[in-house]
Design goal:
By secondary structure, this protein is α/β, with parallel strands linked by helices. The protein has two domains: 219 residues, 3-Layer(aba) Sandwich (Rossmann fold); 180 residues, Glycogen Phosphorylase B (Rossmann fold). Helix content is 47%, strand content 16%. The chain starts with a helix and ends with a helix.
């Protein structure tokens, strides 16, 4: 009980402190600036948008872009089978909001106000959802408490835990108490289900990961990019998806020593001026071109293409032969690799936090993905993949099979909530 109370106090200190730190950072950080500006007058914005809306609303909250991709297959099933509902989505991160704020499957998209008693109460009073969904790791105490107080059922989608997660430390009874409030927790795997059950959380169903559904349904609907085909021509193309400085540096050093005739696309996770300038300087010894400057003539004479806008990576994978997924050398973890796998590509990434991403381990176990630790291992793996086209064809078949075998999570979620009433 004492630990629970301490957790509650710390939570109420941490949230406003985080808000103050982001506000300070907004003076020099563009992403933090969007975080603050997007929440200015947020309740008036929401009220104005919903003032004439009479339909019942279902609320989905996503931290960022990855979580939205997990929510999307469920959203689409609801829109298809229950068009009487309006879908309202909130984002915590500017990167998610800015890239999906005009998505065709969603009726309303807003930033989520910071979690507090007054913010949660005002938000629920305005939105009045009939159901609410939180995706993966989003647990906001006051919002959940207000939903509970108003008898609005809420669900957790595609969660994935391991025993090292902070929720299962000896001091985290407050956070475990939050999990017990969900009507149903839909887990990605049995490991998560057993861990939650062992900690007294019984409202858990294994549904797998809804992102497989999203990729499987949409991969062939993505727009063609003829200019990328012109860039590739008939050469082998490596794409660094959601890359950071480490991935970009390793690839630069590999190309510097390689005698292979290779094209490279860098689609960095951050496209602010500082990072783009870093990439341009790093690759100044190559025929490097920004996507924003590309045309049908100059792109054919370039060897390195830097994508300095958002929303293209999924379509770019269609033209690629090998994917280097970013995040494997940092603290936050790997970025989405399912689209690369759906296009049948060998995947490489760094060694950190793999246990947090079941799909990464699945691809490793099936020899679709390869872990690299340094320049030496990067060169070994890339040279093997580049020089052995039969190996790449074999990997392609396995990767596509894994994607197709893991669809169905969104239907499990939908059937349990909307067909068992």
């Amino acid at each position: 009980m004492i630990l629970h109370f301490i957790g509650f106090i710390l939570y109420n200190i941490a949230i406003p402190l985080y808000g103050m730190l982001v506000k300070f950072a907004s003076f020099f950080n563009p992403k933090a600036k969007l975080f603050i500006q997007g929440r200015k007058g947020i309740f008036n914005t929401i009220s104005d948008k919903l003032i004439n809306e009479k339909a019942e609303r279902i609320w989905f909250h996503c931290a960022s872009l990855g979580e939205f991709d997990q929510a999307l297959p469920v959203i689409e099933l609801i829109k298809k089978n229950n068009p009487e509902y309006k879908i309202l989505v909130t984002f915590f991160s500017p990167s998610g909001y800015e890239s999906r704020k005009n998505h065709k499957s969603v009726d309303y998209i807003f930033y989520l106000p910071l979690d507090s008693y007054s913010n949660a109460k005002q938000f629920i009073q305005i939105v009045r959802p009939v159901k609410a969904f939180f995706v993966k790791y989003e647990f906001w105490y006051y919002f959940l408490n207000e939903l509970n107080r108003n008898n609005i059922p809420f669900y957790l989608l595609s969660c994935n835990f391991n025993s090292d997660h902070q929720f299962f430390k000896w001091y985290a009874s407050f956070f475990r108490g939050i999990l017990k409030r969900f009507e149903i927790i839909f887990a990605q795997n049995e490991t998560t289900q057993k861990l939650l059950n062992a900690n007294g959380i019984q409202n858990v169903i294994v549904s797998k990961d809804t992102r497989f559904d999203k990729v499987y349904r949409h991969i062939h609907d993505l727009p063609l990019l003829p200019i990328i085909a012109l860039f590739k021509q008939n050469k082998l193309l490596i794409t660094a998806g959601s890359s950071y400085e480490k991935e970009a540096t390793l690839l630069h050093d590999f190309l510097l020593k390689s005698e292979q005739n290779i094209k490279l696309i860098l689609a960095p996770h951050e496209i602010d001026k500082a990072h783009i300038d870093f990439l341009l300087d790093l690759y100044k010894d190559k025929k490097t071109l920004l996507y924003s400057d590309a045309n049908e003539l100059n792109i054919q004479h370039s060897d390195v293409l830097i994508i300095n806008n958002i929303g293209l990576l999924s379509s770019i994978y269609r033209y690629s032969d090998i994917a280097f997924i970013g995040g494997g050398f940092g603290k936050k973890g790997l970025h989405n690799m399912l689209e690369a796998a759906a296009y049948g590509m060998p995947i490489i990434f760094g060694p950190k936090n793999i246990d947090r991403f079941p799909e990464a381990q699945m691809f490793i176990d099936n020899q679709v993905a390869f872990v690299i630790n340094d320049m030496a291992s990067c060169s070994i793996v890339l040279n093997k993949l580049i020089n052995d086209s039969n190996k790449r064809i074999h990997i392609s078949s396995i990767a596509r099979g894994i994607i197709s075998e893991n669809v169905g999570a969104s239907q499990i979620v939908y059937d349990r909530i909307f067909c068992n009433q």
